[in-house]
Specification:
- The complex is a heterotrimer.
- By secondary structure, chain A is of the alpha+beta class.
- Chain A has 2 domains: 74 residues, Beta-grasp domain (Ubiquitin-like (UB roll)); 65 residues, [2Fe-2S]-binding domain (DNA polymerase, domain 1).
- In chain A, 31% of the residues lie in helices and 15% in strands.
- Chain A contains 5 helices and 5 strands, in the order ββαβββαααα.
- A 5-stranded mixed β-sheet of chain A has the order 2-1-5-3-4, with helices on both faces.
- In chain A, a hairpin with a 2-residue loop joins β1 and β2.
- In chain A, α2 packs across α5.
- Chain A starts with a strand and ends with a helix.
- Chain B folds into 3 domains: 46 residues, 2-Layer Sandwich (Uridine Diphospho-n-acetylenolpyruvylglucosamine Reductase, domain 2); 111 residues, 2-Layer Sandwich (Uridine Diphospho-n-acetylenolpyruvylglucosamine Reductase, domain 3), CATH 3.30.465.10; 91 residues, Enolase-like, domain 1 (2-Layer Sandwich), CATH 3.30.390.50.
- The relative contact order of chain B is 0.12.
- In chain B, α5 runs antiparallel to α8.
- In chain B, a hairpin with a 2-residue loop joins β8 and β9.
- Chain B contains 12 helices and 14 strands.
- Chain B is globular and about 55 Å long.
- Chain C has 3 domains: 238 residues, Aldehyde Oxidoreductase, domain 3, CATH 3.90.1170; 277 residues, Aldehyde oxidase/xanthine dehydrogenase, molybdopterin binding domain (Aldehyde Oxidoreductase, domain 4), CATH 3.30.365; 145 residues, Aldehyde Oxidoreductase, domain 4, CATH 3.30.365.10.
- Chain C has 20 helices and 29 strands.
- In chain C, the strands form 7 sheets. Chain C has a 7-stranded mixed β-sheet with strand order 3-5-1-12-9-10-11.
- The longest helix of chain C has 28 residues.
- Chain C is globular.
- Classes of the chains: A alpha+beta, B alpha+beta, C alpha+beta.
- At the A-C interface, α1, α2, α3, α4 and α5 of A face α1 and α17 of C.
Chain lengths: 153, 272, 825
């Protein structure tokens, strides 16, 4: 079936199987490989993108469901002139990433979290990240990055 | 990780959804937020041949004050339920419980109707709906009917919904007694409840204490008879048949039920 | 001022944060155009004979290029058979350094046990664990990945089930042998159990006023890197190129050369960005070998990425040792003797031989000056996923054992566990110190580490708070857990590491390192070293790793070796480049070499006192001609280094439900001078989280038939942000004398210290009830069971409770059951 999804401001048209997952459309059809797949039980959050502005796990959304919607991935987060989003900047400043695999999903989850809760407490950040697994950082610096980014709100 | 092949059908209205499900019969499943169904399909534990996407059906996402009750459209997302000012005011138990479902990403997609129709006794909302004595409204080829929550959840993944019926609305009466409590016991924040408890007044719903969500009948009786939280909670496990799995044995779950019911009742009596 | 020791954010980050990394499954290189997708068919049974494989239905499906089984292998040897312990394969001139590295480290990937325990590429006659690869389906086209999953379901394998051997007790009974030609399920043995044994010293505990015995479990866990395993391969013009998610491309090449009977020069292995490894991606697994073989066989490029569910059952697991402990000493707190008898579950294929419990045995005594230490181990195969290194690889097990034993001893004599530690740690004047289990510790300040962490944690206030809550019978009790640890890093120091440093005629520099970072930040760290030594700014330094065409000789990143060996190699290369530059500059300036100075602040050479003569690196490199200024070095360490530390964990235990909350974690982790505190702290954080996870939450579980119960991330309790506190790290730096940087390894230290600290904290929370031990993970039910067992008046668990403090029935022998409780002599 044919779907058209606006990804990072660009219209992406694709002819995909009915069962195609949004994450595969993003990675394979739109060529945006920053969004990663880390599990098959909707547990890890590595595939998190914004769908119409809200964080979703793109491995558990059919491309068909996202037809006509707007999706933002990590690649679309920085400004047109390359200025990093406050969350990206904060991850860099606070060493919020090591291997980088969970990072795109983690960043998008936090972008959404901070939109909904601009000044979270540490506990609220941790609860807000319960759907995002990281194995490298122990979450400590990710939490600091979130709180640092929040100070720009 | 990839669902078995299926045909995707998009319904533009309730009528169309019903036409499609009548046409495809047993081979078809409704798709709402997809966060109960798609995970099963990705592991190929469910292999429907047809998915009827309700995502674009208008008029099924709302939270309305109808006087004696609040009506919630079946396609209302958990995030909307969680943050609805009306629900926070009138049905804080429901708003709070919706905020405990899954994680933020799941709550942006999952719907109350999808969660209830899925019929998983380990889900948070079925027990809440039970405790709130809600009425579920279903529409089928032969029209609309109301199903009391107590009749709705029948067994593991089995509800009173006929295969060709669509859950459209949940009507939740405004509670007579304001006190509420909610306990969700997990090892990790993201986990399903090992045991959960939803209390509204003297109504006590149990999560994951049997093949279907159920009320703690003996506890409710004791409360009605004037027993306090501790005494009533001691009976919480009566009539339950909790599962035994890697997260807990049946005996441990029974113990947890007693403790968590007591805590939820204490929350309810302590007030806001 | 030197940049070393300062906080420098990573050069790796901008790319990772904006475009995302390029992991194997992200590769969109022309060489892989038209690639087919590989999907493995895996055994659903833990132990069975394969009586037939019918691939006809699968092969008949559209888009299927091939369905390959062991039959198609012909006489190609199994990969592990050609592991470096055996003679090098014919026609293969594998680099001697690589072979040495692979042999000596033991951690260097699949191997060294071949013979009857050989692990085949695809199972031929017998499967030995659920998830073992049996066949390989190759599907093409844009829907190749999707179709692969569909088609793999059509491969029909006939199995004749055999009894499943689950748990080491079942294995040791020998009732069912996994490898009948081996004659035994014991793949290796050592210490007092070498050559059969056991030959325990009956007088080991003579003179001890108090002897405590306990059998404890160090449970199996899963590494769970966020990136699962993946590989891609193409065979063209007689050369095989393989991209793999690996911790060492050079070792991967050695494995491929052996398995596929190719000269290593015909193979190029590239490690792109790698999403975590933790020891489980050392070298490559049989699936990657199969993918490479399939590429050569079919002539098509082949890509593979597993699902997480496959990863949970088919990527190696970690830990899984049962320890019979005996600790003896006097009531004044002095520990006199310690024995640890280890049973290591190796899973279905004993890839590591006795390597892991050998390390456990070596580090058995921990930080303590114990006069008499006896160790023994057996490695037993079971019908479960194979075991391999996982962050710490044998040392977390040693530390968890001795730290538990010390707390058990402290409880028995009624002494504060901090005091017992103070009385028994090796004193600073005794270094270098050789323990009674044979480890030669280089430098250490154990008492200082303990004192520092106790102060940082506010130990006395914590004990006061604990006393208050015990007094008031608070349903939420607090536990304070201690761990003092020492660990061995760069165990394969003599295998060394390589570095090639080139300064170009534009003044930039390139470092080709044998290390292979997968999150550790070596590109930043090595650039810092170059800037410090040569004055070339970090942003002018490019670091390259993980490509055997560019770096044919290298060892890789594991065993916490990279800074001390790889960093020292970079340092050494910089020194040689400097010497060469001095020579060239002297010629250019017609001056004596001794009269030249390098200002590392400006990166300028000049004749001392004469700024007019200043030369830039660009100028000197241009004058040097050819490749510019190049040094190609190897740095070999004499022996391993021993970082150490002390952790305090604070937990709250809800005594009504058994739920544990990890509320504080304070650490000292001393690995010598810290090159970049940002990187060091990150390594400590990650290690602490994984260590706490083992203590609190994570466990790989198989049922009695060998079916995995925790085979996805919903069922396996991988730790999340909500279960952890923010950590409190205290700095301490005690250099080693063993390398020019004075550094030891930090990567695994956090894991090693955290697990026992958290486990001890949970037990400590309930010590006033008489609880002496709770096995890991300290799940709510285990904790609650321990509480109710200690308080018979409280509500009793039903008969179906698992035992909180004992290994499962499958793991206990009669002798272990008899030796369960502490006793005094």
């Amino acid at each position: 079936m044919k779907v058209t999804i606006t990804v990072n401001g660009q219209e992406v048209g694709a002819d995909v199987e009915d069962r195609a997952l949004l994450v595969h459309l993003l990675r394979d059809n739109a060529g945006l490989t920053a969004t990663n797949i880390g599990c098959d039980t909707t547990s890890c959050g590595a595939c998190t993108v914004l769908l119409d502005g809200e964080s979703v796990k793109s491995c558990t959304v059919l491309a068909a469901q996202a037809d006509g919607a707007e999706v933002t991935t990590l690649e679309g987060l920085a400004g047109a002139d390359g200025t990093m989003h406050p969350v990206q900047r904060a991850f860099h400043a606070e060493h919020g990433l090591q291997c980088g695999f969970c990072t795109p999903g983690m960043v998008m989850a936090l972008v959404s979290l901070l939109r909904e809760n601009p000044h979270p407490t540490e506990d609220e950040v941790r609860a807000g990240l319960e759907g995002n697994l990281c194995r490298c950082t122990g979450y400590h610096n990710i939490v600091r990055a979130a709180l640092t980014a929040a100070t720009e709100n | 990780m990839i669902p078995a092949p299926f045909s995707y059908q998009r319904a533009g209205s309730v009528e169309e959804a019903l036409d499609l499900v009548t046409e495809h019969g047993d081979e078809a499943k409704f798709l709402a937020g997809g966060h109960s169904l798609l995970p099963l399909m990705k592991l190929r534990l469910a292999t429907p041949e047809v998915l009827i996407d309700l995502g674009r059906v208008p008029g099924l996402s709302y939270i309305e004050d109808r006087g004696g009750h609040v009506a919630i459209g079946a396609l209302t997302r958990h995030r909307e339920v969680e943050t609805s000012g009306l629900l926070v005011r009138e049905l804080p138990l429901l708003a709070h419980a919706a905020g405990q479902v899954g994680d933020p990403q799941v709550r942006h997609r999952g719907t109350i109707g999808g969660s209830l129709a899925h019929g998983d006794p380990a889900s948070d909302l079925p027990a809440v709906i039970l405790a709130l004595d809600a009425t579920l409204v279903a529409r089928g080829p032969s029209g609309e009917r109301e199903i009391a929550a107590g009749d709705f959840f029948q067994s593991l993944f089995e509800t009173a919904l006929a295969p060709d019926e669509l859950l459209t609305e949940i009507r939740v009466p405004k509670p007579a007694t304001a006190g509420w409590g909610f306990q969700k016991f997990t090892k990790r924040g993201i986990d399903w409840a090992i045991v959960g408890v939803a209390v509204q007044g003297h109504s006590v719903g149990l999560v994951n204490m049997g093949p279907a969500p159920l009320r703690a009948g003996a506890t409710e009786e004791a409360l009605a008879g004037g027993a306090g939280p501790r005494e009533a909670a001691a009976l919480a496990a009566e009539g339950t048949s909790p599962p035994g799995d890697n997260n807990g044995s049946p005996g441990y779950r029974e113990h947890l039920a007693r403790v968590l019911v007591r805590r939820a009742l204490e929350q309810a009596t302590a007030g806001p | 001022m030197s940049i070393l020791g300062t906080r420098v954010v990573r050069t790796e980050d901008p790319r990772l944060l904006t475009a995302g990394g390029t992991y194997v499954d992200d590769l969109r290189v022309p060489e892989l155009d038209g690639a087919v997708q590989a999907t493995f068919v895996r055994s659903p049974l833990a132990h069975a004979l394969i009586t037939g494989i019918d691939t006809s239905a699968a092969r008949g499906e559209p888009g299927v290029l091939a369905v390959l089984t062991a039959q198609d292998l012909g006489s190609a040897p199994a990969p592990e058979n050609e592991a470096p312990e055996n003679e090098a394969p014919e026609n293969a001139e594998a680099d001697e350094a690589e072979l040495v590295a692979a042999e000596e480290s033991g951690e260097a990937g699949p191997g060294p046990l071949g013979g009857p325990f050989t692990e085949p590429m695809l199972a031929g006659g017998r499967v030995r664990f659920v998830g073992e690869p049996v066949a390989l389906v190759l599907t093409g086209g844009p829907a190749g990945r999707y179709r692969g999953e569909d088609v793999s379901e059509l491969v029909s394998v006939d199995y004749d089930p055999l009894p499943a051997v689950v748990g080491t007790a079942a294995s040791l009974s020998g009732d069912t042998l996994l490898f009948p030609p081996a004659g035994s399920n014991v793949a290796a043995a050592g210490g007092a159990r070498k050559d059969g044994g056991p030959a325990f010293d009956d007088s080991l505990f003579a003179g001890c006023e108090v002897v405590v015995e306990r059998t404890i479990v160090n449970q199996r866990v899963a590494p769970v890197p966020l990136e699962v395993r993946a590989a891609a391969a193409v065979w063209r013009d007689g050369k095989l190129t393989v991209w793999a998610s690996t911790q060492n491309a050079q070792l991967a090449r050695v494995i491929l050369a052996g398995a596929l009977q190719l000269d290593p020069s015909a193979i190029r292995v590239i490690a792109p960005d790698v999403g975590g490894g933790f020891g489980a991606k050392i070298g490559i697994d049989r699936e990657t070998v199969a993918v490479a073989w399939a590429a050569r066989k079919t002539g098509r490029p082949v890509r593979w990425v597993e699902t997480r569910s496959e990863n949970m059952v088919a990527m190696t697991h970690g830990r899984d040792q049962v320890h019979s402990l005996t600790i003896g000493g006097n009531r004044d707190g002095r520990i006199l003797a310690y024995r640890i008898d280890i049973v290591q579950d190796s899973g279905a294929y004993p890839r590591m031989g006795g390597f892991l419990p050998t390390l456990t045995s070596l580090m058995a005594a921990g930080v303590y000056d114990i006069p008499r230490v006896e160790t023994a181990f057996r490695v037993a195969v079971t019908n479960t996923t194979p075991i391999a290194p996982y962050r710490g690889a044998g040392r977390p097990e040693a530390t968890a054992a001795i730290e538990r034993a010390v707390d058990l001893f402290a409880a028995e004599i009624g002494m504060d566990p901090a005091e017992v530690r103070r009385l028994n740690v090796v004193s600073p004047d005794k270094f270098p110190f050789t323990t009674a289990s044979g480890a030669e510790y280089d430098t250490g300040r154990y008492a200082d580490a303990l004192a520092t962490v106790l102060e940082a944690a506010g130990y006395d206030s914590l004990r006061a708070e604990q006393a208050k809550r015990r007094e008031s019978d608070d349903p939420v009790q607090i536990g304070i857990g201690l761990a003092t640890y020492v660990e061995i890093t760069a165990v394969d120091a003599q295998a060394g590491e390589t570095a090639r440093l080139a300064v170009h005629d534009d003044g930039t520099a390139t470092v080709y390192t044998g290390s292979s970072a997968h999150g550790q930040g070596h590109h930043t760290a090595w650039a810092m070293l170059v800037q410090d030594e040569l004055g070339i700014p970090m942003d002018q330094v490019t670091v390259i790793h993980g490509d055997t065409d560019l770096i044919p000789v290298g060892v890789g990143t594991f065993a916490s070796r990279s800074l001390q060996l790889g960093g020292s190699a970079v340092h050494k290369a910089a020194g040689e480049v400097k010497d060469e530059a001095r020579r060239v500059a002297a010629g250019m300036l017609e001056a004596a070499e001794d009269d030249l100075d390098l200002d590392t602040g400006t990166g300028r050479w000049q004749v001392r006192g004469d700024p007019e003569t200043a030369l830039s690196w660009a100028q000197i490199a241009g004058q040097a001609g050819g490749d510019g200024l190049v040094a190609n070095v190897e740095f070999k360490g004499d022996r391993a280094t021993f970082p150490f530390g002390a952790h305090v964990a604070v937990v709250e235990v809800d005594t009504e439900t058994g739920k544990v909350r990890h509320v504080r974690h304070v650490t000292v982790d001393d690995a010598g001078p810290v090159l970049n505190p940002v990187l060091a702290e990150g390594q400590r954080h990650g290690g602490i989280a994984q260590g706490a996870a083992q203590a609190l939450l994570e466990e790989v579980v198989f049922d009695a038939d060998g079916n995995p119960i925790t085979s996805n991330l919903a069922d396996y309790a991988a730790i999340t942000a909500t279960e952890l506190p923010s950590f409190e790290l205290v700095a301490m730096e005690t250099p080693t004398t063993l390398n020019p940087l004075g550094v030891k390894g930090i990567g695994e230290a956090g894991t090693i210290g955290a697990t026992p600290a958290v486990q001890n904290a949970v037990v400590d929370a309930l010590a006033h009830l008489g609880v002496r031990h709770i096995d890991m993970p300290t799940t709510p039910e285990r904790v609650w069971t321990a509480i109710t067992a200690a308080q018979p008046s409280a509500s009793q668990p039903s008969a179906s409770q698992p035992s909180a403090s004992q290994p499962s029935a499958a793991q206990q022998t009669g002798a272990q059951k008899a030796a369960q409780n502490g006793r005094t002599q």
